[in-house]
Structures are given as structure tokens and as C-alpha cells.
Amino acid sequence: MKQVVSISLGPETADFELDTEFLGHEFSIKRVGTDGDLNRMLALLLEWDGKANAIGLGSMRFPNAIGPKHVLERRAEKIRALSDRVNTPVTMGSALRNVVHEWSIRHVEFVFGKYFDNARVFFFSGLANHKIARVLNEFTDNLVFADPVLENGISKFIKSVRDLELYASGVHEILKWLPSKKFSANFMPARLWNIHLMKKAMQQAQVIVVPHYDFYRYLEHATLEELGGKIIITSCAYDDRVNFLQERGVDVIIDTAPKVLEKVVGLNVLEAMMLAALDKKQDQITDDDLLEIICEQNMAPRVVYPSGTPKRVNRFAFVIHPLSQEFLKKEKTLEMVSQFAPPIFMDAVEKVIAYAPPFLYSKVTGIKSPTGVETEGWLISVGGTPKQMLAHKPEFTYDRLLQAAKMAKRMGAQIMGLGAFTKVVGDAGVTVAKKADIPITTGNSYSASGALWAAADAVRRMGLIQVEKGKAIKGKTMVFGATGAIGSVCCRLLAKAFEEVYMVGRNTAKLLALREAILKETPGVKIHISTRPDRYLPDMDVVVTATSGAGKAILDIMRAKPGCVITDVARPLDLSPEEVAKRPDVLVIESGEIELPGNPEMKNIGLPPKVAYACLAETIVLALEGRFEIFTIGRDIEWEKVREIYKMGLKHGMKLAAISGVNGVFSDDDIARVRRLALKARKTWTPPRFSDVA
Q1: What is the dihedral sign for C-alpha 652, 374, 624, 422?
Q2: CA-based, 20 to 30 A from 189: which of 41, 58, 122, 518?
Q3: Could you read off the pLDDT of 491-510 as tens digits, one per residue?
């Protein structure tokens, strides 16, 4: 039996003895803590020389991986000098550490996919975890290093690997604060300020890297507020450490030290066992030796879920904006003034706010898929109303959307969606997607899906159209804005469900091309095209409005058939509340809003709790699915993607929200009332002639 002794600067209370088998040998492992007593560690090292087959030194701060001299602590220098004089192989686990630190990150990224994509990572010590930093930098630029604060009392963070390396070399400009800052950091106000900065940085991070040594010292000020929901990367996640992190709400612990024994042991113990099994000293072990053992023993890094339940939280951002002056008036700062101010004042406010930089409107939390995946995000507002966006060149809005994308990336978002009129301006997201550093989607695929989802539900509840399973609906449907991004897809999908589809748009050539494409896809359908919105309106059973008219009058609701179902997808709406009120016998619904899974929390966006616009829901679905890619951009939507996002939505628990109109949610009684009024009106209603409005 081979004897391995781990002499640790850690507490005696963690001592243990263990008999096990490793690499075909039987081992007796003994751990001896010294409670930080260096002299006792040196004495024990001499005592076990010649008695043990290998000795591991635990709770040691490893040599910094970067810097001109690879600086060691003084205590480490003494130990190193003594270790060179003893006959028994001695190791601090540095060879294994160099491999598993990088391997742990790459393994997790491979297994879980895009796990660290654009994550905000906070390092207590970049110097001690330089290799981890270099690997993580392949997946994210959002790195923050606390080395200046903790080493020199300088109240500044380093925010790139390059700057960290300059700092290690002693040439970074941040070091100009020495030595006065290091001296002043001992005073209580400075210490408290640095603690505040550290806590703030932890709160903002999604991932926190904690060195294995002085584990509790680094986290002594951390509470649930700092650690709740976080991913912790560390080494040697002993039971007491797991319990400590569990109490503070940590979701995931990535332990760079593989667990190959029944008990979690330090890298120094594992490397000492390797040395004993191979009968080699620490400087004789090769990378090939390590690779062979790692592969043979399946020494994968350990992922621990303190709550006992696997958890993954993906992140998104979504851009919103005020749809009109009425939305601006709801802001507290303007609410009172707007009641007395003349219209010219609000016009001026609307123009000024359009130039405002993007700002964080709301954090979004609590969204959880039935698959177990969760997502959180941020609603970022730009100031321009549709009127102001149309008053400027598209580049004006592009610039603000790219600013929003940079903001989203800094916050850790892995994908960003464009909401309302921002997805309409210019080339409908193409330019923004090309220039942004994170994937962009307009949400138009799910908007089209949601619109038809809502229309189908409304038709079913109205009960005025006979629907036979497996057969085309014997009814007529019309799409306003047929050649637009959402409208064209609606036409394609409606053509597969209805016998007749009427398409209305301004561009005659695009109408002809769309008709040609649909007839090729669905040969049996009757397609009618027109540039006049009201020409066929009186005959329609279902109407979808998907224009970019920015509030302009699109259709005359007085010409609509009693009982007609109108789904208004446009933002701003094509039909005003005043227009809708004229026809209580027509059911006007506001597209298809989506009910989100879980218990979502966010500021009011004009919808009931748990309900989101379909374009926002698309961004959320993609985040839940881990599809961090450009999904829907441009004016031509692939209708296959409409079906795909619909299926993904069902997978993640998305539901059609209760259909609503300009006055809120429609109850069954509301719909029954519209139906009664429609049936009554049809007895005397005569379709108006087109010449009446020509």
C-alpha cells in the first residue's frame, strides 16, 4: 500500500484518513492541517520525508502564472526551498492544475453549449487564475479583475486580459496610484469603499471565479444579494464550501478539481497519488502522463448544483420605445406637466427624447421553461416614437439600436430582440444585425405565428364560420400590408387554411411575386390581389392588418362585415380605439400576445401580468432554447421559421394569452355579445359598394 500525506495550511478540523484504490495501486491517504502555521508545515514535511511515497502541500497560493518573475509568497519560497532538499516527491498540484483549469472551462462549454457566451465574469484574482481568464475570454469580453483592489488597495478594476497582463508586468497606468493608495487603503473609509465596490461587482456578475486558497476570506462579505443565482468557478468544492454557497443562493458550482475518489480532495492530493503510482518526482511528470491518466480515469470537472436541481439561466435583451406622445405622458416627470402644457410643448419633448441615449427600462426575471431552463433579460428603451423615427433617416435609429446592442452586451445578454417600430425602420434589422456584436432578431416570425394563433382562436370562439377538420375553411380572409415581413407570412399560412385569400399592398410587383410564390406552394387556393384596402373588405370573414403605417388610417371599419374578426398586428395599431368603438358587432383583437411560462416579473409594458408581445416572446423562446443566432431579420420571413418558433414556443411552455382588444381582455361574455350583435346586424346589413369610397 502506498502512503500519501497532504500537509495543509488549512484547519485541523478538516483532517481525514482514507484508504482507496487508484491507478491499480492501493493507497492510504492522510490529511494533516496546520491552521496556517508555516513552521509546523515545514516540520511535518521533514517528519514525513522517507515515510510517505509522496507528499502534497495544500491550501497554498500557487505562483502567479503571469508577471516578469512569477512572484511567490514568502512562505511558498521557504517551502519550495525545503521541498528541493527532501527525498520524497513533493507537489502543490501545479502540473495537474495547469491542465484542469483550462479543461474544466472547455469541458463545460462543450457539454452545455454556449454556457459562457457573453457572460459577465468577476475574478477575485486574475493573476492566480490567468489560464481560466484566457479561456473564458474566447467566449466573452465581459471580464472584471479585482487584483488592484485586493492586492494594492486601489479602488479600480481591470477589465481585460491584456490590461491584466500589463498590470502583472508592472507597467499598467493603474499602478500610478501606488504607494499612496496602498497606504490609505488601511483606513476604514477606504476599506469600506473597496468592500462596497467588490459587492457591487459581484452583484453585476453572472459568473464569479474564487481561488481555492483563502476561499472564505474572499467571500466573507458576500451574502444572498451578491451570490444569489450565480455560477461559481473554484477548486476543491468541499462539502462545507458547497453548504456555504448553497446558503447564499448559488445556482451552480464548477469545481476544477475532478472527483475521482469517494471524497473531494485537493489537486495536491491527486497529483501526489499520480507521482506515487508512477514513481516519479514532481519535475519528472509530463503532460503525456497527465493526459493518459485523465483519459483513463475519466477525470471530468465536477458541476455541482447546491439546490440539488440542475439549473441553467440564459440571458436576453429587448428594445422597446414609446409608441406615441400618450406613452410619454405616462412618465412621472411628464404626467402632471402634460395636462396643462400646450401641444407645442409635447411636440418639442417628443423631438428631444428621440435623441436620448438608450436606457435600462426594466429587468426581466422569473421566466422558466418546463424543460428546466430559465432565462432573464433586460428591456432597453430608445426614445424615438414612430413619428420621430420616420422623421429621420434610418441611420438615426440604427445608431441608437447599435448603442442598445453594446449596452446589452455589457449586461451579459446573449441575444437581442427589436420591438415595435424599431424592427420596421430601414431594412428591418439587417444593418443592425450586421454591425451588432450580439445576435439580433426582430421577432416577426413569432408575431406572424401569434397573429394567426389569435385569429384562429377568435374565429373558433365566435362560431360564425364552419370549420371542418382536414378541409380548407369556406371563408374569405384578407391581409393588409401583405407584402411586408409579417403580412407575407400571414398570407402563406392563411392560404393553407382558407379557400380564398385577398392580399392588399402598395407595391404591385411585390403582390404579383407573392401571389406566384403562394400558388406554387398551395396550388388549390384562390388568391386575389389589390392595392385598394376597402375594395373587398365587406366580404371578409377574417382580416389581418400588418402595415407599417405608423398610426395612419388604413381601412374603413364601417365597411367590415358584421362578425368579422380583425387581427391588428401593427404597432402602432392600425385601428384606433375610437374607430373600433364604432363597430361593436366586429371583433377587433390586438394580434396574438403570448403568456410566458414561470412567474415573470418586469415593469409594466401595457399588458397583463405574465403576458408579452409576440416579438418579445420570440427573443425569450430563442434564449430558452439556447439559439443565440440571427433568427428573423429583413422583410422576407421564412415561413418555415414561423412554424419552427411556434413549435419551440410550445416546447418551452408558451401559450396564447387571452385575446384582447383596445379595451383589454375579451371574456367569453364579451365575445358572445359581439356574436349576438353581429347576427342581428347581418339581418339588415347590405355590403356597401366600392364606388361609394372610390
Answers
A1: positive
A2: 122
A3: 988 998 899 999 999 899 99
